Amino acid sequence: MSGKWGITGYVVLSVITWGLATDPPLETYNVDRSGLSVSGVSSGAIMASQLHVIYSSKIMGVGLVAGVPFACSGGSLAGLSTCMKVPSLESVATFTALVTTGAFFGNVDATYHMRHDKVFIFSGQQDSVVHPDNGPNIARFYEHFIHDSHNIKKVFNLQTEHCMPTENFGGSCTVLSDTNYLNNCGYNGAFEILNFIYGGHLVRPSSNTALSGELRKFNQAEFFTAPPLTYSFDTTGYIYIPSRCRDKSHKCKLHVALHGCKMGRHYINEDYVRHGGYNEVGELNDVIILYPQVVPIPLNPYGCWDGYGYTGAMFATNKGFQEEGIRRMMRQVMGGW
User: Fold this and answer.
1) How many secondary structure helices (H) and strands (E) does the chain include?
2) Which of 69, 90, 135, 327 is paired with 80 by a 20 to 30 Å CA distance?
3) Which residues are CB-contacts of 203 (< 8 A; sequence separation ≥ 6)?
4) In this predicted structure, what is the pLDDT of residue 21?
């Protein structure tokens, strides 16, 4: 696709689609601001960790599926590839020092905000894309900042490929999917993440859980001063509003679920936002699910979140374009920051 369009073509297309965005604006709901959390799979896990570290004064929990440690790439695609394949070369002490330095210069929130947060880490033993030894390295990174080891849940023993594991949707759990990276593992990853983050007492969905809420599209362009494609954002995002949360007198929580590479609507239509497992958990437990979307551009040909600096050197800081865009979306849903 990049060969066909080139950068000029992408800029022209971006300006056109920016001007033609027809999705409704993102609304504000009655959100408990102490219950904001994020999660992601693959590159979405990288962005989820970045959001958590950057905005730890606001975000109280994070779920990471098939990710790598914070700042592992060193700001290059080659560095990210090394992290994905050879985690034995990672220096967790370097990553924690970067965060401490970043907090000193005001590029991320003070690290003490993480001390009581909940962190869920999943690495599949048959992951052929991101080496499963990244899971323990992520855990060591967070153990540096989180006081209680019980607040970090590590799931490293399941025989899963590189995927978002689901209870009953997708392909075989141990086969790398080139369709949607949602694998039927008999394991509800979305529930396990949210249940751990929110204290362990959520209602578990069943195979016949009815979705009485509404999955809505919204216009992502309103959160940027330039065309969203400039930062690899789609013009359209999604949000699932549980039935009780549509009544804005009812207080709900907010969770941001980030797709992985080749998992946005550009590639798999609405599979992730409909079948990733989050909506059912949200419906039963009054958790609004926000699904930001990115698309491929020449510097990001597979529609990944920025974990290596393709949007600029200040990625993984509060000056990062993607991080700021998602922050504005969260602020809009919550009615403040």
Assistant:
1) 10, 11
2) 327
3) 284, 285
4) 59
